[in-house]
């Protein structure tokens, strides 16, 4: 654990693996057998449950709760007060409950105060708006928000909303007006945009 900063108030289990350059701030709790990559930042009062796997350069903002069964890939942003769940049928007295895994893929961002229900995949560079409840899979580069979260458009790797340039048979060509990047969004993903919003 070279060059790792752990604040004196943080509780980090000795069986966890923490990557170089990671910073763990005030009152964080990292449970046993977790894996946290290099260059990560865990803000005030973050909770990371046992066995969670977190990639490189991930930011978990203040009071984020990452429960058992969640896997977070590289370059993911998790906003303050975001909560992941892992049991679709929670009862305090259950003795036979099973963890339902959740997967957040590379470069995705989850806005402040969102809740991610278990069993979903948030794909590469997707963006979840603040205060959303994510109940189903989110395609790559999709912008989704609301309760439940609905797809409202698509975003660039830089985070700005994409604009439609041309529709073809299998994909829609979209462009970022901020950085100029272009993307081919599969037609089946583009068709999921919330109908009332239009494009």
Low-pLDDT stretches are none
Helix content: under 10%
Average pLDDT score: 95
Name the helix and strand elements from N-terminus to C-terminus, one letter apiece. Answer: EEEEEEEEEEEEEEEEEEEEEEEEEH
Task: State the separation between the terminal residues, measured CA to CA.
Answer: 48 Å
User: Total number of β-strand segments?
Assistant: 25
Using the CA coordinates, give the radius of gyration: 18 Å
Strand order of the largest sheet: 1-4-7-10-13-16-19-21-22
Description:
The chain is mostly beta strands and 199 residues long. It is 2% helix and 34% strand. Strands 1-4-7-10-13-16-19-21-22 form a nine-stranded mixed sheet, with no helix packed on it. The chain has a six-stranded parallel sheet with strand order 3-6-9-12-15-18, with no helix packed on it. A four-stranded parallel sheet has the order 2-5-8-11, with no helix packed on it. The longest helix is centred in the last third of the chain and has 4 residues. The model has no long low-confidence stretch (mean pLDDT 95).
List the helices and strands and how they pair.
Layout (H helix, E strand, L loop, with lengths): L4 E2 L4 E2 L4 E2 L4 E2 L4 E2 L4 E2 L4 E2 L4 E2 L4 E2 L4 E2 L4 E2 L3 E3 L4 E2 L4 E2 L17 E3 L4 E2 L4 E2 L4 E2 L4 E2 L4 E2 L7 E4 L4 E5 L7 E6 L3 E6 L5 E5 H4 L9
Parallel strand pairs: 1-4, 2-5, 3-6, 4-7, 5-8, 6-9, 7-10, 8-11, 9-12, 10-13, 12-15, 13-16, 14-17, 15-18, 16-19, 17-20, 19-21
Antiparallel strand pairs: 21-22, 23-24, 24-25
């Amino acid at each position: 654990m070279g060059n790792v900063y752990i604040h004196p108030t943080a509780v980090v289990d000795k069986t966890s693996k923490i990557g170089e350059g990671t910073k763990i701030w005030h009152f964080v709790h990292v449970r046993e057998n977790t894996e946290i990559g290099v260059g990560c930042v865990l803000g005030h009062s973050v909770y990371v449950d046992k066995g969670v796997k977190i990639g490189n350069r991930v930011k978990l903002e203040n009071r984020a709760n990452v429960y058992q069964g969640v896997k977070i890939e590289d370059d993911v942003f998790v906003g303050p007060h975001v909560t992941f769940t892992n049991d679709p049928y929670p009862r305090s007295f259950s003795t036979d409950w099973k963890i339902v895994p959740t997967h957040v893929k590379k470069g995705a961002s989850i806005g402040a105060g969102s809740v991610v229900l278990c069993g979903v995949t948030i794909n590469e560079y997707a963006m979840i708006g603040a205060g959303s409840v994510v109940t189903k899979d989110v395609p790559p580069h999709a912008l989704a928000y609301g309760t439940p979260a609905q797809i409202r458009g698509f975003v660039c790797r830089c985070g700005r909303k994409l604009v439609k340039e041309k529709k073809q048979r299998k994909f829609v060509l979209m462009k970022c007006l901020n950085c100029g990047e272009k993307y081919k969004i599969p037609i089946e993903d583009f068709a999921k945009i919330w109908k009332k919003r239009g494009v």
